[in-house]
Amino acid sequence: MIGVDWGSSGFRAYRLAADGAIRDRRSVACGIADLQPGDHAALLQHDIGDWLQQDRDGPVLLCGMIGSRQGWVEAPYLPCPVAPADLARHMTSVTLADRPALIVPGLSCERPDGSADVMRGEETQIFGLAATLAGTAMLCMPGTHSKHVWLRDGRIERFATAMTGEVFALLSRHGLLAAMLRPAPAGTDMDAAAFVAGVARSGRPGGLLQHLFGIRADRLFDRLAAPAAADLLSGLLIGHELRGTDWGAAGSRGPVTIVAAPDLARRYHMAYEALGIAAQSGPEDAAARGLYRLGRLIREDLA
Amino acid sequence: MIGVDWGSSGFRAYRLAADGAIRDRRSVACGIADLQPGDHAALLQHDIGDWLQQDRDGPVLLCGMIGSRQGWVEAPYLPCPVAPADLARHMTSVTLADRPALIVPGLSCERPDGSADVMRGEETQIFGLAATLAGTAMLCMPGTHSKHVWLRDGRIERFATAMTGEVFALLSRHGLLAAMLRPAPAGTDMDAAAFVAGVARSGRPGGLLQHLFGIRADRLFDRLAAPAAADLLSGLLIGHELRGTDWGAAGSRGPVTIVAAPDLARRYHMAYEALGIAAQSGPEDAAARGLYRLGRLIREDLA
Question: ipTM of the predicted structure?
Fold first, then answer.
């Protein structure tokens, strides 16, 4: 079978053996924005046309922002709780090289603050990971929009998204603090002490809006160097994200599983440690496994 | 005497009678940025040269960002607690039309989160207001960088700054939420229900970073119209600002005094009401009175 994880900045395509092993993979830096109807199929034909030709029987599955309103076709959100079989039964079909290709739906849920929440793409990764986790667990998937996910008995029970990465990027590029931060040059190690100080500060009196201004004042009095300020801000935001997460049943679900690239995963490990919450690392590239698992469920349903 | 409140976007100059009455006032939209040494004196000569000519005996006082590192000359920060007489004794002198002009120092303080805090310009407004308040009070001065101020026995005991207005501007102009918000057209009334819903949401489970993403999800499901989303965001941020403020001794200091232009003051009144905290409006243009008060203290010191 063929699986494609197509997000806002590009796609990763996998050619999978019958046992789920990755036989081949390709990455293309072409996000979903600025594509016209018809472009999606043409792009896949161009980049994985040989796979489609050679592997005519297996299912083709796509997940990620490709199923959003701005994507190929909208694959409606499924409300939580959701099991892998629910996803397999609610695929949205498109035509690719004269055969159907299936788009995985996103998930929605209700949050305790009264608002809705959504994910698209992570659900496939989560079910890819879940094969290697206990059925009841907590996941942390940090990034531009960090996801905290509560798994129970192999189903996604609920989740909460925090705009941590995006707010960090906004504050680093625009406004008062931007001129006062200087991320360390590539290859330089992060300032771990400043990061941990930021996590600690997130728990002190005052809210995030107050804590942000403290960075400005500390810079003004040279209490904080510019690269340290960037790591302190990072710790402050991640600290607020984790403190804003409902840990109600966390302990009973075992350590939180962090799914992120190594640099970001390291920050979250440090933050969880500072908060006294047990955490472990999950495998990074779980989308291929999730697509394989969903593909197998679809075959079983058809069989 | 002559008083000038010179902030980042322009200055307001006041010609004051011996009893403090404002005899004349002028506004010039010329902020402190992009000025070279020498420009400040030349600008004042150009815009209030006639006052300087006619009123050669009284003191000339300047407050605001003009005393910052990016201003005319840096007037060092005085650490809290600070009384009006402390300000009067720590002016920084510059030469204007062959006479001394005095720049009011800014204030600094230590915050319970371990960071520093600063203000510049507000201290003069506060002592202008303090003449009309009990000596022990709490003030709220909302804006790009909102100030909460604890007055005790006529002195500024401490204060805390929140980046509320700036974060609202960043989120409205850049990033994911910007495209989903549409502030109501000028002249249209705010959506008070959406604003109050935002204040309420700020107290629910999840932190600010989680609550922000809820606006995105609610827009996606059309639970929220674009102009309502802007007011909900405003309520959410102001709610987090006020909940992040330490109200320890607030009740014993009487109602919080809000100092802001009418539109913003209305939002804060609604937010305080939603939180069950008594609030009242203070006079808006208190800088002239503060400059007058400081000028009189300087005269008494010299006498």
Answer: 0.94
